[in-house]
């Protein structure tokens, strides 16, 4: 006979009743507001947060929107278009009227318990939304979704079970939040030191065109359409990183890739200049630079990622950083020893703020994995047939 699992121990024989979400929580509407109005009304530190899709929000004053549209209860916000996800918020807020939210009016229902259960099932809702041209879900999809209520005949015990599940899961989300805040602070510190280390007074160092520091290997790159790529283990690089994996390779060594995509260079939403190593294939959306030493390659990588490349981007319909403009970028050229010193300092910060094998990103990933593991363990209630 197998030992009872954690969930079974927590329930201690209590029954579980599945109820549609609309019978468990109260649904709330949002406010009619446009993206332009949100930008115009936004004030740093204002008390009311208005949510839009994704990570977009605006902070507004109390009299900027109708009072009836301000929700003051701890709630679950349903982001129903684009990126479909759930967000918990416990301060006064509103949201765009194509979204909706839920709050609890029952003493024996924990809003955070329902939130964690919905986060567990986020892929289900995203799967439904992905069937639309613009990913989206409607209110019946969430209203009719089944929520497991433990020990429904004993509200006090039911709330105690929900509270214990929330306590455990919140422990991991709190750790993740603390590490994320620490990572943000370290990134700000990194940017500060990078800017200081890469700023030189006039006459302090020689400035030379990039083409004198690196050999450009653009002539050797070669695009392959997706239908002709033979699957393998060799990374196939594009403008902002690995696009695919192929069987053959063009390059074998250490190189610096620089995005050719002007829109990407302006938005800086994906890597701009990044190092690669080993056997690789590169298409014609990234420039390939080869340096004599690691210190020189990384120094230029750090410098290009720190400056505004707008003056070097040309073309209107499809803005690009072409080879001629790339080669003309002036790079500070201190001694090799000074480059090594700067690179050593910045490499330390880089590992702390970006490495998935060491540093804070790795710790955040591990805490998130722990949260998901225990969430699956604690919220995997047997579901009877017919429950949405």
Structure summary:
The protein is α+β, with helices and mostly antiparallel strands and 388 residues long. The chain has twelve helices and 17 strands. It is elongated and about 80 Å long.
Number of strands: 17
Biggest sheet overview: 6 strands, mixed
In CATH's first tier, which class of the domain at 18-151 applies? Alpha Beta
If helices are DSSP runs of H or I spanning 4 or more residues, what is the number of helices? 12
Q: Overall pLDDT, averaged?
A: 89
Which structural class fits the helix and strand makeup?
alpha+beta
Write the CATH fold name of the domain at 18-151.
Adenine-n6-DNA-methyltransferase TaqI, Chain A, domain 2
Low-confidence stretches: none
Specify the overall morphology.
elongated
Indicate the CATH architecture of the domain at 18-151: Alpha-Beta Complex
Fraction of residues in H or I helices: 25-40%
Radius of gyration, whole Å: 26 Å
SSE order, as H and E? HEHEHEEEEEEHHHEHEEEEEHEEHHEHH
